[in-house]
Design a protein that fits this description.
- The protein has 4 domains: about 160 residues, MoaB/Mog-like domain (Molybdenum Cofactor Biosythetic Enzyme, Chain A); about 60 residues, Molybdopterin biosynthesis moea protein, domain 2, CATH 3.90.105; about 80 residues, Molybdopterin biosynthesis moea protein, domain 3 (Molybdopterin biosynthesis moeA protein, domain 3); about 70 residues, MoeA, C-terminal, domain IV (Beta-clip, Beta Barrel), CATH 2.40.340.
- Helix content is about 20%, strand content about 30%.
- The strands form 8 sheets. The chain has a 6-stranded mixed β-sheet, with no helix packed on it.
- A hairpin with a 2-residue loop joins strand 22 and strand 23.
- The two termini are about 25 Å apart.
- Bound molecules: adenosine monophosphate and magnesium ion.
- The site of magnesium ion (MG) has 6 residues, from loops.
Length: about 400
């Protein structure tokens, strides 16, 4: 049995970043920028008015000063002339500041009569001008890697980057195994349950940037399992669920062996999730997760998500654990690292009494996994413990 951190190191060694591809701007949302990109223009491309008002010379700005309005500068239609002494140009937000002007008096501070305006109120010291290139300039860079959020997409658009280099989405094939499983929506027989793990993992991994395929459920026969692996062989990562321990119907280890998998390890000192196997199968990394629903999901958080991040080029650092005081005492931990379902309410963390690895209701209620190292001693109320938000 190996430690969680050794297992994670080994798993991260099984994968590498996917290739880059170029996608249209709108398709880049949520994707990982693969290489730095640079602005192709200045923004704003000219000194621009930040307000609706009148552009004139700052040296002439004082209360009660009068000016003659000689034209207009609107967004998309600049004023082509020059502002001279005693002159002003009507201007709107986003419009170019005309030559000769270096100040915009906002319209609220102006009284106008025909073509004459008077500064009726103290206009303050802000010029109300956005300088050319004040947001970004040609060559301003967005660094990679970076998960592109909505603000990044807006920025890329403003930079006139219509095609974006991103990491290919890693493909993950999920294989549920078991004679007892049917799909959600099907009518289960009296001895059957609904396959839940593939759907939970699909949601987890898709949200984190994977392209997930859920393969047909493999019955507990070698040929079914073999067919599933054949269907999965072009995936970057194959994840099986269930059939990974040593029961009579646990076939994953045997079948992967006959398919030539070089096995990296088999068991990890953790709860839940001890029977976990991993290796390489052809071109794909392969991880065999335990079948118990909570175990499968916890292993998804602890192992599969970091592998996915590595494949997305986001590095191999595991997310830093947070700490919070316990709402109540917890007893000594056993020899395996325990990921305990619990709830953090913003003040203290409450560890659930029932840690049954088959109970999805408790996992759905949890918003943290409290991480207890092997042999961690009993902990008193108020003592700080490490947790991973989920
Ligand atoms: P196994 O590792 O195949 O012995 O499975 C352990 C437990 O997890 C059994 O109770 C299985 O019925 C259950 N299980 C296995 N795969 C799934 C799945 N995809 N969804 C829900 N439960 C599962
Ligand atoms: Mg099974």
């Amino acid at each position: 049995m190996i430690s969680v951190s050794d297992a994670l190191d080994t798993l991260l060694d099984l994968v590498s970043p996917t290739a880059a591809e170029t996608v249209p701007l709108r398709a880049a949302a949520g994707r990982v920028l693969a290489e730095p990109v640079s602005a192709k223009r200045d923004q704003p491309p000219f000194a621009a008015s930040a307000m609706d008002g009148y552009a004139l010379k700052s040296a002439e700005v004082e209360k009660d000063a009068m000016f003659k309005v000689i034209g207009e500068s609107a967004a998309g239609h600049g004023f082509t002339g020059r502002v001279g002494a005693g002159q002003a140009v009507r201007i709107f937000t986003g419009a170019p500041i005309p030559e000769g002007a270096d100040f915009v008096v906002i319209q609220e501070d102006i009284s106008r009569s025909g073509n004459l305006i008077t500064i009726a109120d103290h206009p303050g010291t802000s010029t109300n001008i956005r300088p050319k290139g004040g947001d970004f300039q040609i060559g301003t860079t967005i660094d990679a890697p970076r998960v592109l959020g909505s603000a990044d997409i807006a920025l890329l658009a403003a930079m006139n980057i219509a095609q974006v280099p991103v990491r290919k989405q890693p493909t993950v094939a999920l294989i549920s195994t078991g004679d007892e499983l049917v799909l959600p929506g099907d009518t289960p027989g009296p001895d059957q349950i609904i396959a839940s793990n593939t759907f939970g993992l699909d949601a987890l991994l898709t949200a984190a940037g994977a392209r997930v395929r859920i393969l047909p459920i493999a019955r507990d026969t070698e040929s079914d399992l073999r067919t599933a692996f054949e269907l999965a062989q072009d995936a970057d990562l194959i994840v099986t669920i269930g059939g990974a321990s040593v029961g009579d119907h646990d076939l994953v280890a045997g079948v992967t062996e006959t398919l030539g998998m070089s096995r990296a390890f088999y068991k990890v000192a953790m709860r839940p999730g001890k029977p976990l196997m991993a290796g390489t199968l052809g071109q794909s990394a392969m991880v065999g997760l335990p079948g118990n629903p909570v175990s499968a999901m916890v292993c998804g958080h602890i192992f599969i998500l970091p592998m996915l991040r590595a494949m997305l080029g986001l590095g191999t650092d595991t997310p830093a654990l947070l700490t919070a005081p316990l709402a109540h005492p917890v007893s000594e931990n056993g020899p395996r690292q325990h990921y305990m379902r619990g709830r953090y309410d913003g003040q203290t963390v409450h560890v659930f009494d029932d840690q049954d690895s088959a109970r999805l209701t408790l996992l759905a209620e949890a918003n943290v996994l409290v991480v207890r190292p092997p042999k961690d001693g009993a902990r008193a109320i108020g003592e700080r413990v490490n947790y991973l938000p989920i």
